[in-house]
Automatic annotation (TrEMBL):
This is CMP-N-acetylneuraminate-beta-galactosamide-alpha-2,3-sialyltransferase 2. Substrate binds at residues 141, 182, 205, 265, 301, 305, 325, 334, 351. Homodimer; disulfide-linked. Homodimer formation occurs in the endoplasmic reticulum. Residues 66-75 have a biased composition (Pro residues). GO terms for cellular component: extracellular region; Golgi cisterna membrane. The keyword Lipid metabolism applies.
Amino acid sequence: MILRRKLCVALVIAAILFLMFASQSIQKKNFLPLSLALPFSWATPTNEETVVQPTAPPAGLTHEPPVSPPPPNTPKPEAEEGSLGDPQQDQSRPCGCSDSCISDVEGSDWFSKRYDPKQQPVLRETNNFDPDAIKWWLGLQRSGTDQTLEGVISKMFKVISPPTEDFRPLPSRCRRCAVVGNSGNLRKSGHGSLINSHDFIFRMNKAVTQGFEKDVGNRTTYHLLYPESAVDLSRGVGLILLPFKLRDLEWLTSALSTGEVKMTYMRVKDRVAADKDKVLVVNPVFFKYVCDHWTERHGRYPSTGMLAIIFALHTCDQVSVFGYGADQQGNWHHYWEQNRYAGAFKKTGVHSADFETQVIQQLAKEGKISLHL
């Protein structure tokens, strides 16, 4: 009896052990550990484990496919036209001035018909000259030279430095310029401080400042001249040559080097004091442009004063004009002298003072220059 009970107990224990081993075997075959069953492990890594973090895409890249640009001439959807954001995006100011930019031709049909932003006002080593414009320019004044334009320019740029200035308007800058004429109406004007306040100051021909600082200022950035009106320039002042003939280009080369050119159609300064690295030469083609677009062929060719203003319109962002026209008594003379023959040029027909005055006044009316008479 006792033996039978012991045997039953042994069988029960054996059955229990069998069931335990069978259960463990089934679990190993059908289940993964929790750390491997989840997509990201929350378990703390050991020295033998590496946790790979999700990698961010490189800067500038996205997971979205690139968007192809619309084909050319694709019209805007009607919903976009006239939206409030269009003016800021499509009509950005061409220069850095807060109130106005000369190169912004919007709002003035008169100005937009005359102002050509593609014009190159400064002569450079490589120019694609318009043959008709050069032919016209060569006929302005007799030159008395058998040299070619290309040959003269090549020699000139061996003496002066090729221009590096970029005159295109930029949103990052505002170039405020004063163009100071030589009219007697500058006397007792008191414009000296206002003139000096500009970034760039253009004077011309035989202009003087000493003794007239209260009315004309004492700063000069660029001095426009031609051989017959040449003067020595102070250090730091840039020379701008207005060449009315091929001989003028030869004179510039000579006046800054050998001094061999002493005559044009009259006796001229054989040497001139100026910085060779600060010399600019107005493009001959620019003369034709001013004559056709601005003075509209009134007179044989534009005056120095007219050329100076239009030159400034193409190299500055805002322009103020001083000292143009006759004085209050109607006399034409320079502010530093009394010359009763100063207005004789009006009778020659070379320049049309009356028409040029109308153009200057219209520029002021259109808001493209600030005129101080």
